[in-house]
TrEMBL record:
It is found in: Membrane. One of its GO terms (cellular component) is membrane. This is N-acetylgalactosaminide beta-1,3-galactosyltransferase. Belongs to the glycosyltransferase 31 family. Beta3-Gal-T subfamily.
Length: 233
């Protein structure tokens, strides 16, 4: 990582198996050193790509002085689900409550050795009445994505997502919001390509109110300016 980017390293917690221990230390550091500086805190894997403008627009609808947790929601392990660890964002108040729970109530939020920190975070917050909030657009399409689009070609994964996704799951590309915030399981090359397509390509004769077409039932079907799919006749 470039030296000019502020970062901390936990050399004794080097593997994914230590994710829960690491995220506790990360959020402890964030609260004790940054709590008054920021309203929202993003946690993302190193194979995730974030469209920051869409994230900023999304969280701008909410009050960070209230406890919020946003991300792709799964409906297992924790009652009312958990936000997937590929990328999730928590409000300043949710961070404060999590910090206090870690510090003062080890029975509610124990420090255990576990890789699935997203599940443990949701479990801790659920014990004080904080649950993942809805993170889909007005049409029910996902803004945070856990799987790479090509992974969705797997019938096993498709069935898994359909069964365990908190919101109704639709095949690609119908579950992808035009306001997508995060993509996951990307290679470094794919991240650079996504970035170039978003910020480097000049689009002629198309305004932001004219969405790109999407594939529908094997045909090219345009969207209305409101974002609804026009079904082929």
């Amino acid at each position: 990582m470039p030296s000019h980017i502020s970062h901390i390293v936990f050399s004794d917690l080097a593997t994914r198996d230590h994710s829960w221990e690491k995220i506790r230390k990360v959020f402890k550091h964030a609260y004790e050193n940054l709590h008054e500086k920021f309203d929202w805190y993003l946690r993302a894997d190193d194979d995730a790509y974030i469209v920051m403008e869409n994230l900023e627009k999304f969280v701008g609808q909410y009050d960070s002085s209230k406890p919020y947790l946003f991300g792709y929601r799964w409906n297992f392990y924790v009652k009312r689900g958990f936000a997937d660890g590929g990328a999730y964002v928590i409000s300043r108040e949710a961070l404060r409550q999590f910090y206090n729970e870690m510090r003062y109530n080890q029975t509610l939020c124990p420090e255990i050795h576990r890789a699935e920190e997203d599940q443990e975070l949701a479990k801790c917050l659920s014990k004080i009445g904080v649950y993942p909030s809805k993170s889909t657009d007005a049409y029910g399409r996902q803004m945070f994505h856990h799987f790479h689009p090509l992974e969705l070609e797997s019938s096993f994964l498709f069935q898994f997502i359909a069964k365990y996704s908190f919101e109704k799951f639709e095949p690609f590309p119908h579950h992808y919001s035009r306001d997508t915030i995060s993509m996951h399981h990307l290679s470094p090359f794919e991240m650079r390509m996504y970035h170039y397509l978003l910020y480097g390509v000049k689009y002629h004769n198309r305004t932001p109110t004219q969405p790109a077409p999407v594939v529908s039932d094997g045909n090219w079907a345009p969207l209305t300016t409101s974002g609804e799919i026009v079904k082929p006749q």
